[in-house]
Structures
1.
Amino acid sequence: MSRLTAEFQRLYAAGPDGSVLALVLDVGRPSDRDLLGAVWRGVQLDLSLPAPGIAIAGENSYQLWFSLQQGCSPDEARAFFDGLTSRYLSDVAAPRIRCLTEPPAVPAEVKEGQWSAFVAPDLAPVFVEATWLDIPPGVEGQADLLKTLKSITPQEWAVAMGQLAPTLPQDLAPATASSTPDASGPASSYALATGFSDPRAFLLQVMNDATVPMALRIEAAKALLPVMATP
């Protein structure tokens, strides 16, 4: 196994249960480095996430590659993308944005003589006019770029989702008191382990349980914010 393959699998391979570990935000048509740069800086400064990878994707677009240490459900991935686009890309036409949970092969020849590749942040502006390489990128150089990237931890994910919650569309916003199911109603279709003595452990399980409604999981993430801020 090459170093590049090993680094790619470390960051972006699917989880053993099929959970999503790679979230790829593709912005372009036409390409706009300033738009992507705003998201790249924002997720670090506003959401306290590690720097995502940057790729020139051909097709006149750039990509941000997010890696999750612990997989998320498709609903969580959608909520994350919706939060990012609402917060940073609200003025961008929908056809210019693609949200991918199955990472494409990079590097790859996307068209004849046009290769996608991961690039360093300071070199990304060089490719505004042509978001590709004319020749295959060096395998060792690509591996070195991926080696510097870190996956988002469950704690960082909880904080980010809590920060993004206020910007989510109505159908993904946290439930209000009037929409909370009546405890006397029918039994829920999901069940959590009982006997928790640590509130943090309970909230983390709720947040990461794909069978729990997204609104409740976002509420758990918000509740974890002050907890995660405490050493």
2.
Amino acid sequence: MLFSSSIFLFLFLPLVLLIYYLPLGRFRQGQNVFVLLASLGFYAWGEPWFVLVMMGSIVVNYGFGLWVDHNQRHNHSARMPVILALVVNLGILFVFKYLTFTLGILNDLGAHFVIPGIELPIGISFFTFQALSYVLDIQRGHGQVQRSPLKVGLYISFFPQLIAGPIVKYETVADQIDHRKENWEDFSSGCARFVVGLGKKVLLANQLALVADRAFQLGGMGQLTTGFAWLGSLCYTLQIYYDFSGYSDMAIGLGKMFGFHFLENFNYPYISRSVTEFWRRWHISLSTWFRDYVYFPLGGSRVNSKGKHIRNLFVVWLLTGIWHGANWTFIVWGLFYFVLLMLEKYGHLGRGWPAVCQWLFTFLMVNFAWVLFRADSLGAAAQVLKAMFGLGAGLWSSETGLYLRENWTVLLAGALFAAPVAACLRERTNRCRSVLLAVGYGLLAAAIFLVSASFIIKGTYNPFIYFNF
């Protein structure tokens, strides 16, 4: 079930909120059980069989959490349950996401495995990382073990961030499961945040996707001009930002409606002046997950040699690429960022440059990286990159002009709001405390919702990029 679908907006969400606040408003345990059941139903709507995989993940990680807690309370090592939790969780992820890719590689090397047809459960990378966070945070003493499997289930399956993040670490919400406090301020703020995310998704990302998809289609056929290559890559760069940050906005807003407070997942990444800064602003929940559970345990930057630090960064960025998908494009994408970060940290790349040059270089590198990320194969990515450097089917085409004329307003709006323009306006509005401005903001939010809803009802193109992960 998509957040940007009529069934979610006009049936599922209103019904869940009504039951949550009216008959169950003063009964926390009842609210938790109800939201858990609603979350399982939300997932089962599109994945009726794969909900069993998630329920299995809940049960086994509930058991691992109890095992870790038992060993720690009795002064025994928690090493064994933690290792088994890693093996089981990553094993499940490997089977569903990477087995066919691995068997294909082995067959290319001369093996003769029969490659099974395995469907990928939506959001398996997200809920697997959350399940691991539960066990690891108990082991680190960053959260109390849950004696009730229903509460573990609520943490892992909570529908706002279940299938495309943000990845919520257990320590962030451990206390909120029983002790969150709903109020009108949070609820109204959550509604506004949800509407902003919906607008990002429906009014910007979906429209930009039409141009990007056409460009990469032409690239695969070797018919991409230089102009369309740049137009398509820029549209995809903006599309993936508004698609994913829009989903994160909706997830954070929904969380607030139920009294949960999730950490931010995006902070205007396209204003970054270095790749290091970009990854502090982009998909923050994934970056912090790898930092806390992989990079720091390996020693981080506090190791006794440059070689070990480079190894640690290599492992993190290799895993970051692999996490995103079973394709060489994602692996090369992750390693491309590893190389850029090494050049920044040890080659002083960009240091001392004028600010505008630092920003332009960073943006171009991110744009090139998104071409790798979007392409179906390394060969397809090479076709698009070649066209961007003038080695395609000419410099310009009438189709390029047509797509640009039809979409320049969306492209301009996307570029404008990728900078903190809206945040500055919102801050000034809050400082003014004007009733007129508050009413105007409410009317604007209502207009965004109505226009977005009209697009949804008409059944326009409505993909979600990160559902694939």
